[in-house]
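Fold it.
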Amino acid sequence: MAKKGGKSVAKKRRRLPALIKDMGACMFKKPFTQQYPFVKVEAPEGYRGRHTFYPEKCISCGLCERDCPANAIELIEVSGKRMPHFYLDRCIFCYLCEEGCPRQAITLSKNFEMSTTETKELLVTPKEFISKPKATSEEGKENVA
């Protein structure tokens, strides 16, 4: 066999038919990738996404702030109660805050779509989760112009 640059020419001839065979097989298979964002991907169980906070369960103990290794939690005063304010731009999503919470006021979510150019959008405040009192039908009629 003739050698060219230390490699045999016969080996190159054997690789070409195998390459064409593999290309042909892949052309007719279902693709492995998904067309995100057109096809939404379901996050697996136990995925550590955006924080979900239940203010009615919070007892203002401060364990979440103490346990956070990234200092991404700050307790702020909201309606007479100290509640956590999450800085997702600092968060490393270790969820030690969830593990340390005695009342399960902080939980995992499967929301992974958090990309933004504004840091204000990466703040999770307790005000987002405090439910507003529902207006009764009489109150709703008075506010209609």
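The radius of gyration is 27 Å.
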